[in-house]
Amino acid sequence: MTPGELALANGNRTPVTEFILLGFSSYADLQELLFVAFLLIYAITVLGNLGMMALIFTDSRLHSPMYFFLSVLSFLDICYSSVVTPKLLVNFLASDKTISFEGCVVQLIFFVVHVTAESFLLASMAYDRFVAICQPLHYGSVMTKETCVQLVAASYAFGGANSAIQTGNVFALPFCGPNQVTHYFCDIPPLLRLACGNTATAGLVLYIFSALVTLLPAAGILTSYSLVLVAIGRMRSAAGREKALSTCASHFLAIAIFYGTVVFTYVQPHGSSNGTNGQIVSVFYTIIIPMLNPFIYSLRNKEVKDALERKLQVSIFPCRVPQGYLPE
């Protein structure tokens, strides 16, 4: 019996007006240290992703579909990390760890929107690499600016639809106490455990739609990269194979970390977000991955490193740049 069902059985029908985010409260002696660590991670996340976006927008050599998607990925990483991390940082230092019922709803809405959008954006990026490597002669006509914008819009549309379904699925249930969320943000599995009444249907909805928005894009990604690997194996040029593998390897690494942790949290029949283990797993896809993505893509991408070097040269040695000339 869940805590919510137990409260209902005891006759408690008082509506919950706020939740208490317990977060990492079990580590009472490490609150200040955890605050500093997560603040540093968040600062690196925001600065790293903003820097990636600025580099792509200001360097004309990076004005291609792949880097357009990468800039959107950086934007999404900033967004869903910012939905979760600031409240977590406040709770590390504050004695009052409450969040209003409405605030919890809003947090869940925006979190699901951006995480779902990222799932489909990663699939769009895989499709872009498939067309670039397997159909290079048609790349310019297939991956047009309009197509790229439509794929991003579709990613957000799926995110909005999934958010509406999942948020409605949770908060259509009554909450009559207790109100202690065993997590550092308003996530679906710990909220369902607090709901009064039978949550079997809500749990099934969570499982089905979480599977749809993770496994379907993942299937598309695996199909795209399987075809890409076949095409790379047929390349006669060693340099071409190395460049193609380098570009795809960084993408695939980010995908493996993201989908691995999301599937582990939401798609298991019995979930994994109970207690500390679930929180640690969630830290990877809500806080760590948004920080790592800019470094994964930049450190393994020669074009990004070259663009960064050009910007640094202009910034550090401006007198060496001929007047009236700005490098591309």
From TrEMBL:
Signal peptide: none
Family matches, as InterPro entries: GPCR_Rhodpsn, GPCR_Rhodpsn_7TM, Olfact_rcpt
TM regions (residue ranges): 33-55, 67-85, 105-127, 148-165, 204-232, 244-267, 279-299
Cellular localization per UniProt: Cell membrane
Molecular-function annotations in GO: G protein-coupled receptor activity; olfactory receptor activity
Record keywords, A-Z: Cell membrane, G-protein coupled receptor, Membrane, Olfaction, Receptor, Sensory transduction, Transducer, Transmembrane, Transmembrane helix
Function: Putative odorant or sperm cell receptor.
Similarity field: Belongs to the G-protein coupled receptor 1 family.
Record protein name field: Olfactory receptor
Protein's organism: Acinonyx jubatus
